[in-house]
Design a protein that fits this description.
Strand order of the largest sheet: 3-2-1-4-5-6-7
Number of strands: 7
Number of domains: 2
CATH architecture of the largest domain: 3-Layer(aba) Sandwich
Oligomer: single chain
Structural class: alpha/beta
Distance between the termini: 34 Å
CATH topology of the largest domain: Rossmann fold
CATH superfamily of the largest domain: NAD(P)-binding Rossmann-like Domain
Number of helices: 8
Strand content: 5-15%
């Protein structure tokens, strides 16, 4: 078995109905993992699961879940364990972005991002650690070598740069970075054997990425969406936007045994934009 062969790995991916989450789920399934897609978009996530299973031949299922609900998290983990016989990896991908200037801050918008991006990630860490630690419901041994599994949190290049119009989003993704490192420290100190890392995706032309270009332009920060994209590319040493596959491959790496001694780390997948 190659180190990036995820055969026998059981993975739960949140926000899996579309965008980066769907791409990550497809890459994980292609690498051999059994994948559970969780999303609040019930019909969409069911269809995405069907599509990925057909394309990859992997075991793929879905569950309707709101990542801000403690009960939904407990149910999603239990469903994954029941469906696949265990749980080895949790990918906390679900997130939302609201573009606004600081002078126009809407507290309700910020609270929504706090709930999904921070509380949702914290609950994913909570239930992932509980399930995958020694003696947990996932059936792992929580061994010192990291056999208890892995948690991959999705932060953003917004956590490492100062880009106008996304202060609230940047704050929440910076929090994901800190949560990752504290979770890794607690897991190690308490002998859980669960590795916790995060990725910082750069801008990708998904629905969310396109919306950001349009809305920053609408706020007068750029002359138009194309100018916003050009500004991002100009800040990126690799000279292009990211692609879903770029982000998905990084998640596969952090889910695999190739990253067995990578813990409490943030992996930038942004073409150098945040360096």
């Amino acid at each position: 078995m190659g180190q990036l062969d995820l055969t026998d790995k059981r993975v739960l991916v949140t926000g899996g109905a579309r965008g980066l989450g769907a791409g990550m789920a497809r890459a994980l399934a292609t690498a051999g993992a059994s994948v559970m897609l969780g999303d609040v978009l019930k019909d969409a996530v069911e269809q995405t699961a069907v599509d990925i299973a057909a394309a990859t031949g992997a075991r793929v299922a879905s569950t309707s879940m709101d990542v801000t609900s403690d009960g939904d998290w407990a149910a999603a983990v239990a469903h994954t364990v029941a469906e696949f016989g265990g749980l080895d990896v949790v990918v906390n991908n679900a997130g939302i972005e609201v573009t606004q200037l600081l002078v126009d801050t809407d507290p309700d918008d910020i609270r929504r991002m706090l709930d999904v991006n921070i509380i949702g990630t914290m609950l994913g860490i909570k239930h992932g650690l509980r399930a995958m630690r020694r003696g947990g419901t996932a059936g792992g041994d929580g061994g010192d070598g990291g056999d208890g599994g892995a948690i991959v949190n999705v932060a953003s290049v917004a956590a490492t740069i100062a880009f106008p119009g996304i202060a609230g989003y940047s704050a929440t993704k910076s929090a994901v970075d800190r949560l990752t490192r504290v979770a890794a420290a607690e897991s190690g100190r308490l002998g859980y054997g669960v590795r916790v890392n995060c990725v910082y995706p750069g801008l990708v032309a998904t629905e969310m990425g396109t919306k950001l270009a349009v809305e920053t332009s609408r706020l007068g920060l750029f002359d138009g969406p194309e100018a916003a994209v050009e500004a991002v590319v100009a800040l990126t040493p690799s000279g292009r936007l990211g692609e879903v596959a770029d982000m998905a491959d990084a998640v596969v790496f952090l889910a695999s045994d190739a990253s067995r001694f990578v813990n409490g780390a943030g992996l930038s997948v942004d073409g150098g934009m945040g360096m």
